[in-house]
Amino acid sequence: MIAQLKAELLKVRSTRTTIGLFAGMIGLTLLFVLLTGLLTHPGNLTSKQDQRGLFAPGAVALIFAGLAGVLLVTSEYRYGTIRPTFLFTPRRGKVLSAKLTAGLLTGFVFGAVSLAIAIGVGSLILSARGIPSALSGSDFRVLVFGGLAGTALCGAFGVGLGAIIRNQVGAVIGLLAWDFVVNTLLFGLAPSIGRFMPTPAADALMGIRTAHLLPPAAGGAVLLAWTAALALTGLALALHRDVV
Amino acid sequence: MTAVVAESLTKRFGSVLAVDHLSFTLEAGTITGFLGPNGAGKTTTLRMLLGLSEPTSGSALVLGKPYAKLNRPALSVGAVLEATDFHPGRSGRDHLRMLCRAVDLPDSRADEVLQTVELQTAGRRRVKGYSLGMRQRLGLAGALLGDPELLILDEPANGLDPEGVRWLRDFLRAFASTGRTVLVSSHALAEVAQTVDQVLIITHGSLVVESSLQQLTSRVGATVRIRTSKPDELEQALSRAQLHATRDEQTLLVRGADTDRVGEIAFAAGVPVHELGTEGSSLEEIFLELTSEPGS
Fold this sequence. Notes:
The complex is a heterodimer. By secondary structure, chain A is mainly α. Helices cover 81% and strands 0% of the residues of chain A. In chain B, strands 5-6-7-3-8-9 form a six-stranded mixed β-sheet, with helices on both faces. The radius of gyration of chain B is 24 Å and the shape is elongated. At the A-B interface, α1 and α5 of A face α2 of B.
């Protein structure tokens, strides 16, 4: 398992795909913080809720971590490297567990960098505009730990989804459609059900408290349940599906 | 010692029977050509041998166990199923290093096999820029990482230029000369005829021939064609040697002897020879005959 994890982490580092996603995430996080921080009326940046919204890596890091996770699996099927991978490690459960761990770690790194940029640049903007910080130490702790746990889980979530939908285009479209369409629509139309979807659960985990969201711990539990469900389904399928 | 045993191996895809109760045994230390036209079920069979695909029924043992039950199989079996199984954006060396990690081999092993397949300079470039021949060799390098005793290669000569084919042939011979086993598939018998000791020929998922190459080639060149300015004298000389010839003006077609024998008879009879050669089935024709549809 350790050997396989080392192999998976080298796979992540040895192509430009993940690095490209990482750069894209940094760019979008910066853009989001700068636009929100500089263009929002100061009156709308004073409450805890406003500032959490500014600092949270939110949709950007979560979706990029999810995409990185999806590509960890689907790029192997797309380019056929799954064949040598399974020939070298025929115990497929081991391969998938290593990929889930690599997804968690990749998501964690994505979350850490995104949070550092959002909190660092966001705080600079607030102090430059003379807006006092509204968040307490414990608010920051929930934001940071919840954000890290959320992006890490999203990385593993992507791995699980990729193991189910092995076609790369299909899996990427599936992830984006689920996030932007299903989650958003369901949360907008029927929030009492929509809040149990992965993205609102991840928002809740970071302490964001807009109406209808679950408390942070419950949000974390829901996201964990989703990730586990996808991972176990992907695992069960990987064990028996032929590799052609 | 047997290297591979397939027992009544069967694979069905919906209504298509891709592999139909295929049984064969490979002895250690042999080079076997696994032959058949495209779509005969060769790759499906190899996938089942290597645990990538589950047989509908039957079983396959590699070095005495199902492939997936081998402990770190890459250290005893090297296999290449597709020449193109690389991420185009990853360097050849990184591809090999990632495989090394999975079985706890040092990175230095990646450099060693790159040297074996003569890719040491290209190894640090991304695979995107490799020719098909280079990709074939990189795939082979991956199979060699664990210093295996059994090598299974699917169509390794595809896309190789004549020089590459010769390189592969020399390599496989050198590999087998150390007592190791090779199973190499091909859709063209001529491609592997100079490499293999024995052949398995399949069509429509069933075995049609399992024989040594020698037995197969003994069918080649069954008729000798000889042209001479003194056909009458040659015909008499041949009949004295108990050989029957059919004659068409100055050309005689002789069955039951090879060109050496017919040439020597002509020489002994003092008959000038203008042309001497074999006629009839080549190895490729025999292969086509064996693998074509019955009655077509």
